[in-house]
From TrEMBL:
This is Glucose 1-dehydrogenase. Belongs to the short-chain dehydrogenases/reductases (SDR) family. NCBIfam families: PRK07231.1 (NF005559). GO terms for molecular function: glucose 1-dehydrogenase [NAD(P)+] activity. The keyword Oxidoreductase applies. Coiled coil: none annotated. Keywords: Oxidoreductase.
Amino acid sequence: MSKLEGKVAVVTGGSKGIGAAIAKALAADGASVVVNYASSKAGADAVVEAITAGGGRAIAVQADISMTVEAQGLIEAAVAKFGRLDVLVNNSGVYEFAAIEEVTAEHYRRLFDVNVLGALFATQAAAKHLGEGGSIINISSAVTDVLMPTSAVYTGTKAALNGISGVLANELAPRKIRVNTVSPGYVVTEGTQTAGIAGSEMEAGLVAQTPLGRAGHPDDIARVVAFLASDDARWVTGEVINASGGVR
């Protein structure tokens, strides 16, 4: 029997990159998956098609999780389709670097609304449906250890998410709901390619700081998430797990 057989998972920001790999990994382990997207319908549909082609169950649901009504609608769509909810992966995130002289209120709000407020709203909506054994997994970043120049706001969002995860692990523990964080190092995705990081001197520097000597791949993160979603991790909560190739 697959480790997640009979379970239902929602993956926010699941249309590409790490989110897409997570959705596919959870489905491969037997979960029915709701692939959330904000704007990339084609990407989300492609993930769903890949899952269903492999014999899995998945749907795509559009929602801007930084809006409480849409976050609630996403979770309600999952329950309406599959009848329950067991796993929430808060993966939605945006990153944009700016030197301190260039930081604006708009830049701050854009990153905090998606990376922090979105995770809070999705968790708030999901907590109404998660029962004993439920698992919430927040995707942070090793940037909180690396402390890269020009990343003050982005790093702030991920540090906030780490703290929130710890609080919620304690808050939801009496209901036997686990909350953990996965902190990826540098991972090659569509986003890093679009941003011009892939193949750049910045990428070379990030790889040079990685003890295992390579960039990460989305599936490197997805397998850690799949473990945390499963009953194999039933005694793990309140943890920040670095999936970073050794970056500290």
